[in-house]
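Session log. Operator J.P. requested a structure for one protein chain; no other inputs attached. Running the standard single-chain path with token output.
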Amino acid sequence: MPELTISEVARQVGLRASAIRYYERIGLLPRAPRMSGQRRYDITALYRLAIIQRARQLGFTLIEIRHLFFGFRDITRASERWRTLSQRKLAELDDLMDGIKAVRGVLKKLMTKCRCDTLDQCGKGIYQSMNRVVVAKPLLADHRHREKYPTSLRT
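Structure written below.
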């Protein structure tokens, strides 16, 4: 089987060599054997990187991707792993969509209801409405900080 250099792998999968080294360092990509001091990869590295890239495109965090590879028993089929993580990601997206709908509603209300002449008037109205609400929470919660997996990426 031909051995690929890191630059060849990077070119074939459309990543920078530094990203490949990073994925190797955090354990998402197996440590590559060295030949004359250079990393050498086999074709399976391309497959692993394809999975990582697809998962990133779908919005999975590196922690979630780590869970995809290592968070299941070895006998768990790939399809079941994807199904489990996809269900969680879909629930997260549903929450985000609810937040987006709420923000859209507020923006539309601002466009039609705001009659303020100055920003101080707006600030006063917003402040008074905030004090009427018992619990003030962000309309769009920052979903990136709600990890469902262990926070360490290192093995």
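Operator note: Residues 78-141 form one domain.
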